[in-house]
Write a structure and sequence with these properties.
Two copies of one chain form a homodimer. Chain A is of the alpha+beta class. Chain A is built from six helices and seven strands; from the N terminus they run βααααββββαββα. In chain A, helix 2 crosses helix 3. Strand 7 of chain A pairs antiparallel with strand 7 of chain B, so a sheet runs across the interface. Chain A binds a DNA duplex through helix 4.
DNA sequence: ACCTAGGTGATAGTGATTATCATCTGGTTA
DNA sequence: TAACCAGATGATAATCACTATCACCTAGGT
């Protein structure tokens, strides 16, 4: 089997492992280990729902009634920046439309959000043979390739040369 | 070569073909062919930028100075509904976070937006061998599989039985 | 030409996210 | 251990993309 739903039972041990390393990873990223951050990563690791900020807020509030929604938004963003979390899509800011309705996928520059179409016939073939996925009926798909475009890559290289930190 | 940027030169002929069929496709979808809709699909087909509503608005305004931004939003949405356009991601409404930072992909229910993790080792392998893509430096990727979850599929089936239109 | 369902423009409203800023605190240093 | 301060937080205002509302308009069938 080539496509496989990730087993929910793996989450417990995975979360425990990630949590045990969290403080060290924060410090490595130059971040203070605060109770709020701990609560937020804990809530995120404990959920298989790919939650939005408000869901994390609701969960965390039970233990930290004074936490601010702004802190939740900020912290989730920060966690993504140090690689302790990810977004399901990096294109959630606003709707992007495409007039090309033939099957294709996208490369997205992680800095400037420039998007270009790409074709991956092998991927389309792989998915064409998959109509069910656990409890899901497959309808279609779209691959988002994260990349750095030439222009942004050049800017970053220049910034590095003049001594600015990469991130 | 397995991954390939779509050639920009294809857009001209493709847009012309789509435009010539547009009126017929609107009527097939039960939509009136209005100057605004024509201008919007034209602007969309003429752009390789995967534009946001405001960019389409700006482009269309040059020929239709009285068009409303609301019309642009509505029309782009309508075009997606009848299959004349698509969104780059269906998850643009709000940020969804994932605590799982191991390489994986997602199945998304098109109705309720439930998301589950999936693993596609063959896709990861395919992409691991691709560090450049035209002017882009590849960093990672995320596949969004569009699907219908069991619950929503059941609801839809039931609605059909009781005579409600599917869409 | 006439009718009407559906489309549009103007604008108010909503919901998610970000900005601002005064206050607080983790973690380093004396 | 206390004192310090860069960075973190909470409260709240502001912003931004998008949707709802509604009076008026028009495409397309009669």
């Amino acid at each position: 089997m080539e496509l496989q739903l990730v087993n929910e039972r793996r989450r417990g041990p995975y979360a425990a492992k990630r949590l045990s390393e969290f403080a060290a990873r924060c410090r490595r990223g130059g971040l203070a280990v605060t109770p709020q951050r701990l609560a937020i990563i804990k809530a995120l690791l404990g959920s298989g729902e790919h939650p939005r900020a408000d869901a994390i807020f609701a969960a965390v509030r039970m233990q930290h009634p004074h936490i601010s929604l702004a802190t939740v938004h900020r912290t989730l963003e920060t966690l993504c920046e140090i690689g302790e979390a990810r977004k399901v899509t990096m294109l959630h800011d606003s709707a992007r439309y495409d007039g090309n309705i033939t099957p294709h996928h996208h490369v997205v520059c992680v800095k400037c959000r420039r998007i270009r179409d790409i074709e991956i016939p092998r991927l389309d073939r792989l998915l064409a043979g998959q109509s069910e996925l656990g409890e899901f009926t497959v309808l279609g798909s779209s691959l988002e390739i994260h990349a750095l475009c030439e222009e942004c890559g050049a800017k970053r290289a220049k910034a590095n040369r003049t001594g600015k930190p990469r991130r």
